[in-house]
């Protein structure tokens, strides 16, 4: 039996998926320009690997899985020493500090995955502690939306809240989490 060939219509991606992917990205990175860039990178990666689409999932699901990897790569980059140097480097646009001199001074990463695993575990523990310190409703909504990936409608129905109330709670939870992580992780 011949394998079924699945075709995708890349010309319709922007019309069909751009808004959904943008909303998915913005809820995870909380930066409009970055979310747009990640969606653009997702479309580009999808175009490059369109021949690998097997049709085991919908096009949207397939694109979301690519976007998830792009988001993870983004956070890995900014949490690495080299990524932090690149971010600081972009702070200077002109003058005597212009250039990539800072990145060159970053030590190369060793092949010691145990240190990275420990750092990741400590980061996860600190994030969990910060989530636990949120008001109970904030923590519940935040976990349902961002960790368990429930749809907005499901959360609203389950907790008997409006969609706008949900997004206010998410925003407040993120603001408190950012402060907690800055105070307890990034500034240590």
Automatic annotation (TrEMBL):
Q: Where is the RNA polymerase sigma factor 70 region 4 type domain?
A: 125-177
Q: Read off the InterPro entries from this record.
A: RNA_pol_sigma-24-rel (IPR014289), RNA_pol_sigma-70-like (IPR039425), RNA_pol_sigma-70_dom (IPR014284), RNA_pol_sigma70_r2 (IPR007627), RNA_pol_sigma70_r4_t2 (IPR013249), RNA_pol_sigma_r2 (IPR013325), RNA_pol_sigma_r3/r4-like (IPR013324), WH-like_DNA-bd_sf (IPR036388)
Supply the alphabetized keyword list: DNA-binding, Sigma factor, Transcription, Transcription regulation
Coiled-coil intervals, chain numbering: none
The UniProt family comment states:
Belongs to the sigma-70 factor family. ECF subfamily.
Domain (RNA polymerase sigma-70 region) spans: 14-77
Pfam families for this protein = Sigma70_r2, Sigma70_r4_2
* Species the sequence originates in: Polaribacter marinaquae
**What is the protein name stated in its UniProt record?**
Sigma-70 family RNA polymerase sigma factor
Write down the superkingdom of origin.
Bacteria
Q: Does the keyword Transcription apply?
A: yes
| Signal sequence, renumbered to the chain | none
